[in-house]
Amino acid sequence: MMHFNWFTRKGIVYWPASIGGWIIFIMAAVYVVYLFIDIDKRSHSGSDTLINWVFNCLIVGVVYSVIGFLTEKRN
Amino acid sequence: MEDFETKLENMTKPDREVKPPIEVKLAIVNAQRSAVLGVWFTLIPCYFLFCAFMFYFFHLDYGVFGSIFALFSMLEKNTMWLVGPVILVGLPLISIILNALAITHFSFDRANRMLRLNIKLRWFNIIILLLSIAIVSLFIGYAFALNIQVK
Questions:
Q1: Which of A12, A40, A49, A72 to mutate to test the interface with B (most CBs of B within 10 A)?
Q2: What is the DSSP string of A27-52?
Q3: CA-to-CA distance for B46 and B27, rounded, in angstroms?
Q4: What is the pTM of this model?
Q5: Structure ipTM
Q6: Is B14 near chain A, with CB under 8 Å?
């Protein structure tokens, strides 16, 4: 199995450790900001925005963590 | 007497070699890594359950906790109907499998014909495993209760 060494794990959070990891991290961060703007545009209240955005953030976090899990730096 | 000695010399020696037990190590992934992924996989169901608890038990809404139900019913109506069950049941199920594999070790003792199951006491994995089992059984129980029709 190939080892990518893109991320290192600190606690339950995966931090980028190489250029591949940084690209994925920045893409995830940009997508989260885009999600907030997009949801805010269509929602009717602040709480509506927040609940939808938090939910979407958690999904992004799960996908990011799965990528981190598969490409983690191993000793 | 000579005949007896040659008989003894020609006798086959018993095999004293004890074969080591076959150990099937089922720890496919590192226990800590499994626990971390388990945390992420149980986060969304926990968030959903927290909102449901606040809404139905404490009757708190403020337009916040009730929105999660609207979100899931919207997902059901759309083509993304599979997203809800996958998130609420599928991910905790994967978490159960990962964490169970991380703490269990099977070994087969050939001499005694015995299969031994060892569970490593890694508390973080065990807690995540129990939490995942609770979430899955809660949602499956809810689905059963919802679909049972008394005729």
A1: A12
A2: HHHHHHHHHHHHHHHH-SSHHHHHHH
A3: 26
A4: 0.72
A5: 0.77
A6: no
